[in-house]
Amino acid sequence: MTLPEQYSTADEGTFGKFTAETRWGVILQNAIDDINNSMTNDKIDIDIGKLIEKDLIGFKKELVDNAPLRVFTPKEIETCNIPLSFNQFINEYQGPALTWLKAPWLFSEIYFYRRINAIFKMNSLGISKFWFEQFDIFNRLKRSTFKLSLHGVVELAHRYLNLKKVLLSDKNIDTESKQILFKEFIEISLWGNATDLSLLTNATYEDIKSLQGEKARQDSESKILINDTVLAWNKLLENPSNNRIDIVLDNSGFELYADFMLSLFLIQSNLAKKIVFHAKDIPYMVSDVMMKDFTILIDDLKDRKFFDVPVGSKDDIALNTVSDDISEYVKEGIFEFKTDSFWTTELPYNYIDPSETKYHGAQIHKELLNSDLVIFKGDLNYRKLTADRKWEKTTPFKTALCELATNGITLLSLRTCKADVQVGLKPGVDEELTKLWEKDHPGQGNWWVSSGKWAIICYSNGQK
After folding, report:
1. By the 8 A CB rule, do 259 and 376 touch?
2. pLDDT along the chain (464 residues), means of 10
3. What is the separation of C-alpha 453 from the centre of its chain, rounded to a whole number of angstroms?
4. Nearest residue to 340 via CA among 252, 246, 258
5. Domains located in the chain, CATH noted
6. Other CB atoms closer than 10 Å to residue 57's CB: what's the count?
């Protein structure tokens, strides 16, 4: 099979081109501004911060000048633990030299974040522990966004508390009701803080199965263009109470909180025995989860200076219950956190294969074979699953997965659509949504797929 080419930052009328021309510059300027807002009182840290700021300004000029993408130096590779796949891609790229505005979007975007990380590491190595180890250029935005989600955080905590009482008090809950709840928690994880949480108001199965609950579910599902939730449900029923589920995470803050909610439900409803969370190893894509973000989230849930609710109030009790339950599962080994540099390479996920021994692909494959279901969260993971290629939008999901479709890994992709790539649609859907989006966004009808207004839930059983 001849594979389609990948989306490029040079493709006219695409979200990828807009990202390269506009969004990356804004992200860099925000990073430059945050350097000054994050200085310690230590003179060495201040001096290093100024060097980092200078290099970030120079990096921004590269973008503005549409400079060629350079290889990482041997010192950068050693100091910053940069996988060799980046240099290999640049050296072997066929065609004209790669520049910021003429490169595969997937590669150049991930390379962009690696370059930012290298600026911090190279300037502070052996001099400033603060900038080298402790500082996350995106942490301020991550936490401020989570703090602004107070209403949703508290609301979902109350609904979790009510649901927990039901689950723990009745071990004979019928399968139909449990399946409905599974769908709701999957959708909460899918949409993050954009989700409608109304279905869990009382967390009684009578309410959930009512006509009003059915209508709310239908409204919520109307924006999900592909919904394979039932296939994932059937998979979990094959080995209830003994399933291991892996979650390859996307955003920190509320989305991670929603992922924890899904995970708590899976354990307490005896649909899973263990959850393994996979995080990033560097500050990445602005808001992606790093290992430190797990602890930060749990601490923020307990901190009444962070979430301003009265101590001893119902809100306080609900938030503490969630954080205590997460902490207890971590202590018991039921929740486990892992990271690997593979997740921050540009490599598509067909590299998760037993024959790929160069860039941790075989290692990741072996790890995920232990899982009964691997949930890939978010848009970037979807782009990597499909290699960010210009597939026809009716291309079957398994076709776009290439080798990953048949190498034994059972997976579920939860994605709100925020990029140009899309597969698995029924004939006519793309044309219909393009026309719909064009009405309010003249000349950008095809940007419906990067608007974040629609979503997909796609399943693959990993078998031929």
Report:
1. no
2. 94 95 94 84 89 95 96 96 95 85 97 96 89 86 90 90 79 80 92 53 47 56 93 95 96 94 94 97 93 96 95 96 97 97 96 92 96 97 98 98 97 96 98 96 95 96 94
3. 17
4. 246
5. 15-135 (1.20.930.60), 142-460 (3.40.50.10880)
6. 13
